[in-house]
């Protein structure tokens, strides 16, 4: 039928039939739900409901209520065999559907099933395929699964990091930038829980990720810097490893001065500040990376978070660099009523540190 209202009601009916009353409550679009044996869901699949739902999504992408209803039904069918064994490489729109399903928390958890969901396991297998579209979709889906600490911890324990690193290693030279970008996004999300940082460090992440320092692609550089900054957050050991790596510091210095990509420049400066804040080797960092100059420039940023991070790092390392013209900037910060209170507090801390350092 081409009647979108009729399709909407039909989609809702399919969603009710597929609804698992023992699963995640609140999925139904009506006050009541029907609990029906899996055999009826299998019957729907055998009658071609999945390609029909996909066809509706392709035909009416602008109809948000209809799209939501179809995605809901597809998610509830996600653990059925035909859906899982579809040749995703030949159905690019289905990959988009699967990734879209995972944007919402409840569908994502339903598919993940504490690391045992069939759809989750199928998505992991995409990372090993030769199809770059499938690899990218898999990495993006992993990043979507990695949205809470429990999921991240389980995925790292199950070895997801090794699979992502193996994928990245396939794309070091003349690789697909979109795949690298997606894979680094997944690694960054997985590195958020403190326990995962330790485990990923023990798994050799930092050694294997250095291969991407040669990348000349700003999107990859940006994601790499963000992932490394997440790895050193609160982790003295990781910060010490990176903070004594002369090749890495030289590359960070280069990117701190990047004029082609403001995002890369900002992330490089934030990583430099993080290395000083979280390690005990800031003297070496300042010497190799000329960090004082870059941090002073960062302190003049228009972004509050970058100002604050730079001021804290400068206060920590205040005994090892000349003020470099930072004093007038501090005076301006303290006098300006529009400057955020946390920035003024950090500016006062730096003033005290500079005074105490002689």
TrEMBL record:
GO terms for cellular component: cytosol; endoplasmic reticulum; mitochondrion. GO terms for molecular function: guanyl-nucleotide exchange factor activity. InterPro entries: ARM-like, ARM-type_fold, Armadillo, RAP1GDS1. Keywords: Cytoplasm, Endoplasmic reticulum, Mitochondrion. It is found in: Cytoplasm, Cytosol; Endoplasmic reticulum; Mitochondrion. SUPFAM superfamilies: ARM repeat. It comes from the Eukaryota. This is Si:dkey-191g9.5. It comes from Erpetoichthys calabaricus.
